[in-house]
Write a structure and sequence with these properties.
By secondary structure, the chain is of the alpha/beta class. Helices cover 48% and strands 16% of the residues. The protein has 18 helices and 15 strands. It has helices at residues 2-14, 19-28, 30-34, 51-78, 81-97, 99-130, 146-157, 173-182, 202-210, 225-228, 231-243, 258-265, 317-332, 337-346, 374-385, 406-420, 433-441, 455-465, and strands spanning 136-141, 163-165, 190-194, 214-217, 250-254, 270-275, 284-292, 295-302, 307-312, 355-357, 364-368, 392-396, 423-427, 449-452, 471-475. The strands form 2 sheets. Strands 2-3-1-4-5-6-7-8-9 form a 9-stranded mixed β-sheet, with helices on both faces. Strands 10-11-15-12-13-14 form a 6-stranded mixed β-sheet, sandwiched between helices. α1 (2-14) packs across α4 (51-78), α6 (99-130) packs across α8 and α15 (374-385) runs parallel beside α16. The radius of gyration is 25 Å and the shape is globular. The model has no long low-confidence stretch (mean pLDDT 90).
Length: 484
């Protein structure tokens, strides 16, 4: 029983312990939810028995006990002993089978209790921030690029300040509350807070918690459309960060992004605009850009005439945008261009975000498995196209959480793959069907397309076709709560 309960608890955790999301997952994954077959598939993000997970596990246990006791009392009082015992054994089997639903009920029961507990942590963190008048807080949000930008900003600011970064993808109220309560100390001079959202109001909530004086909008595009429904809702939500800045705050915008440009133009707070296009309108920009398979070189310039030559190990032109955001924050906090350039040189590739792995076989592996979106997938293909030697192989399960445009976006992804890659390994037949259709639009060689069930099978296929100097791109890796 415990293993089956843990499986349901794991999905609830992956769905953010949200009752509606968890119930929707059960509805869309009935075979997986109710299967009695032992699942030996490797788990990418295992269940973590946090205090909240323990409370939910115990609540589910109590619900099962209550159901069993009620039915046992009814059977014993109404039926003969041996029939009652037989039926009670059947009830145990039914409860075992229905663990996904009892976990849903436990999640619903615990929602108001958890909200009260979470609010205590939230208020405590908020008060701690308010007592630190000397602390500079930088808020970063966007449809994509925010985690990379966060670490880039941290690397640059460490040239001058003692910096605390939110780890990994901690970008929710509870994630930020945990970092502030447990890690923020009087020694920290700058706190960098990544801010994520899947619906309107969530950026405002984290901004009111962290109270940033500087806000960065990295990019806006069609991500999480399953929950946002449309791009206008994404615009409203991301702009909540700018609205929550104090009157003397500084708003930093990627002015090359068509959606962000509209938001920047309506902003009357102090703002810094960055990009690479129409440089006469920008405060900070990159010029003389050289992008290769080893990284990038560019000249960092501002409208005052300052300039410095920079180099980075990060791959792809899109990462220069993230670096420009970091340069803007650095300038806002008083760093010189020389200090910013030194910080840029120290930036290390971020795991699973277009970083090169050397497996020692002579085959080049590019790991971009964290997630994927229309802009990010184009950037990844642009990077792999820069490798002049060897065959180009892509392994992908496609893009998710794009709502109504998911199918068309994956079809376009297939078209783009067909222009760059020599071999394609699709993980999962159903979800990757639009990619296959896009490949066919380019008259792609069918014999160079392989469909596998998981990454283990993909690895076997790579071993058959890859040779030294070939390049293998892993583009996206679906989380455990997504399946065929």
């Amino acid at each position: 029983m415990k293993k089956r309960t843990d499986e349901s608890l794991h999905i609830s955790q992956l769905e953010g312990y949200e009752y509606e999301h968890y119930l929707a997952w059960i509805k869309n994954n009935r075979d997986k939810a109710y299967s009695l077959n032992k699942n030996n598939r490797p788990v990418k993000k295992p269940l973590v028995m946090t205090n909240r997970a323990k409370r939910l596990f115990n609540t589910n246990y109590v619900i099962n006990i209550i159901f069993f006791i009620i039915t046992a009392i009814l059977f014993v009082s109404l039926l003969r002993d041996y029939i009652a015992i037989l039926l009670m054994i059947i009830v145990l089997g039914i409860l075992y089978y229905l663990q996904p639903l009892t976990m849903a009920l436990a999640t619903l029961v615990m929602e108001p209790i958890e909200k009260k507990i979470n609010m205590g942590f939230y208020v405590s963190a908020q008060k701690k921030i308010k007592t630190r008048e000397d602390l500079k807080v930088v808020g970063i949000t966007g449809s994509f690029g925010k985690t990379s930008t966060k670490f880039i900003v941290g690397a640059i600011l460490e040239e001058k300040f003692n910096v605390l970064n939110t780890p990994e993808s901690y970008n929710t109220p509870m994630g930020l509350s945990k970092v502030i309560n447990n890690e923020l100390s009087s020694e920290h001079e700058v706190f960098i807070a990544e801010m994520g959202a899947k619906k309107i109001g969530e950026i405002r909530e984290v901004a009111q918690l962290a109270q940033p004086q500087i806000g960065v909008l990295t990019s806006i595009g069609p991500v999480h459309l399953e929950t946002f429904k449309n791009i206008d809702n994404i615009l409203k939500t991301k702009y909540e960060l700018i609205e929550e800045l104090p009157t003397d705050g500084i708003a930093i915008f990627n002015y090359d992004n068509e959606y962000i440009k509209k938001l920047a133009d309506k902003t009357f707070k102090e703002k810094i605009l960055y990009g690479m296009e129409n440089t006469e309108n920008l405060d900070i920009y990159a010029d003389d850009i050289e992008v290769s398979e080893l990284g990038s070189r560019f000249t960092l310039k501002d409208k005052e005439g300052n300039s410095v030559r920079c180099k980075t190990k990060l791959l792809g032109k899109h990462n220069i945008y993230n670096i420009l955001a970091g340069a803007c924050v650095g300038k806002a906090l008083g760093l010189t261009f020389e200090e910013i350039a030194r910080g840029i040189d120290r930036i290390e590739p971020i795991p699973h975000r277009l970083n090169i792995i050397n497996p020692g076989t002579g085959i080049i592996v590019i790991d971009d498995a964290f997630n994927s979106n229309p802009i990010g997938s184009k950037a990844a293909l642009e990077v792999i196209s820069q490798f002049k030697e060897g065959k180009k192989i892509i392994v992908t399960p496609g893009m998710i959480e794009l709502g109504e445009i998911e199918e068309s976006a994956n079809r376009e992804f297939g078209v783009n793959i067909g222009k760059v890659c020599d071999y394609v390994i699709l993980v999962g037949e159903k979800r990757t069907r639009p990619i296959y259709e896009g490949l066919m639009e380019t008259n792609y060689n069918k014999s160079n397309i392989f469909t596998v069930n998981n990454l283990d099978e993909a690895t076997v296929q790579i071993a058959k076709i890859a040779k030294p100097k070939d390049v293998v791109l892993f583009e996206n890796d679906l989380p455990d709560n997504y399946s065929e």
